[in-house]
Amino acid sequence: KNEVEQSPQNLTAQEGEFITINCSYSVGISALHWLQQHPGGGIVSLFMLSSGKKKHGRLIATINIQEKHSSLHITASHPRDSAVYICAYNTDKLIFGTGTRLQVFP
Amino acid sequence: SQTIHQWPATLVQPVGSPLSLECTVEGTSNPNLYWYRQAAGRGLQLLFYSVGIGQISSEVPQNLSASRPQDRQFILSSKKLLLSDSGFYLCAWSLSDRRAILTFGSGTRLTVV
What we know:
The complex is a heterodimer of chains A (about 110) and B (about 110).
Chain A lengths: L3 E4 L2 E5 L4 E7 L6 E6 L5 E7 L2 E5 L2 E6 L4 E6 L8 E8 L3 E3 L3 E6 L1
Parallel strand pairs in A: 2-11
Antiparallel strand pairs in A: 1-3, 3-8, 4-5, 4-9, 6-7, 7-8, 9-10, 9-11
Chain B lengths: L2 E5 L2 E4 L5 E8 L5 E7 L5 E9 L2 E4 L5 E7 L2 E6 L8 E8 L8 E2 L3 E5 L1
Parallel strand pairs in B: 2-11
Antiparallel strand pairs in B: 1-3, 3-8, 4-5, 4-9, 5-6, 7-8, 9-10, 9-11
């Protein structure tokens, strides 16, 4: 069993839809990362959060440390949001979720 | 500002040939360094991580090795590549603080033929 579970694994949406990707983990952590991997493979860090909520543009990330759960929301989704979204936490090494492949169609 | 450089971007190598991928970080000291591999259609798999010069932790037994000859240099090597070594290799760095932001290199797409 993966230490970090993401759902759904695959997600398709129409442009403009509200997107939610979930991440659950099994150990106590101090911070969680949300990453975005583009079709070419490059990875960028979207958020690092340890409590509450963070917002950047149309992206919102929330975390509940006690429940060991985090969500990534995309409002007014756009085809350029199509990517793999990965959550991860950091101990001495990085533990990654399996990723959620999002496709947004116009 | 900190930057991470990874090269080459793409590589096609025959089975049995050696491999050397290099990653360097600028603008910081004593970073944690990581090598990841992503096989086609699969998630990221941690291969090696390093918390300091000469300190390498291996996560997956395989024919790959890593070295950290300098504080901000991380090298992934193989003496003889296998077909199963094909994939997308990513170098990453972070500060030693567990809440530190992760920064990834641009990746190397390796095809072993």
